[in-house]
Amino acid sequence: MAEEELPGVLILDIGGTHGVLENLAALLNKHFHLITMKEFLGNKEEMSKKIQSIFVFQCRPAIDRELLESLPNLKVIGNSGVGVDHFDLKMISSFGVKVTNTPHAVADPTADMGMALMLASARRLVEGNVLN
């Protein structure tokens, strides 16, 4: 599938402090034409027609009315986390846009960390490490 045929997805950036992780961007790039916020803002008229989805990573980019009004072909906003409480769902749905998230993405790592903390606490591993 050529890049022009792939649906456009708006992301804040690739890498850096708040951008999508590079390995995740590589995966997204197989299925979407990635458009960074900088590219979008640099050529809103052309880019706004290509963007059909927004990938929100670490609560960025912020979804507000102005952004939604500038994306006439937007169909879905995908959040790379468990919750959607940082979205104004009523406003977003008024544009006919769906919101999705990844509710089970961090379930196993969270359970692993919880078990590790309980074992460390029960066996006083942190204290033992400090004493050495």
TrEMBL record:
It comes from Rhagologus leucostigma. GO terms for cellular component: cytosol. GO terms for molecular function: glyoxylate reductase (NADPH) activity; hydroxypyruvate reductase [NAD(P)H] activity; NAD binding. It comes from the Eukaryota. The keyword Methyltransferase does not apply. This is HPPR reductase. Gene3D superfamilies: NAD(P)-binding Rossmann-like Domain (3.40.50.720). Keywords: Oxidoreductase. It holds the Pfam family 2-Hacid_dh. The keyword Kinase does not apply. Residues 26-113 form the D-isomer specific 2-hydroxyacid dehydrogenase catalytic domain.
